[in-house]
Amino acid sequence: MNTLVSKLEHKWIIFTFRQPWIPTTAACKVNLSTLPPDPVIPSKKPFKVDLVGGKRYSWCTCGHSKKQPFCDGAHKTKAQGLSPHRFVPEKDATVWLCGCKYTNNPPYCDGTHKQDFIKSAPLHEPGDS
């Protein structure tokens, strides 16, 4: 076999002779129990907040916090796998922070709460599990 390969000198043939193609099936396995939970919706409107420049904030991503829109640590027991979004604004500003938790620009509202899947979803009450 080696003499045939050296006479032909084609890389494709060399590859074919040395490593024959064997069909395999590969599937991506995902353990769904390890995926983080979806956030609940504490508000279907954004929160108007005055932020102080240089101060560190923790925006709630799970929706369980009783101090919306900020984190109170409720994710540790009610939404393990989610953690707050921490940010520091550059300067003092009045902003709209997302209340539905489905923004594509966290922590800021991007209007996602106007979509049908948010409008039709149940609103999470702070005492709910």
TrEMBL record:
One of its GO terms (cellular component) is mitochondrion. InterPro entries: CISD, FeS-contain_CDGSH-typ, MitoNEET_CISD. The keyword Metal-binding applies. SMART domains: ZnF_CDGSH. One of its GO terms (molecular function) is 2 iron, 2 sulfur cluster binding. The keyword Metal-binding applies. Its cofactor is [2Fe-2S] cluster. This is CDGSH iron sulfur domain 3. It comes from the Eukaryota. Residues 44-81, 82-119 form the Iron-binding zinc finger CDGSH type domain. Keywords: 2Fe-2S, Iron, Iron-sulfur, Metal-binding.
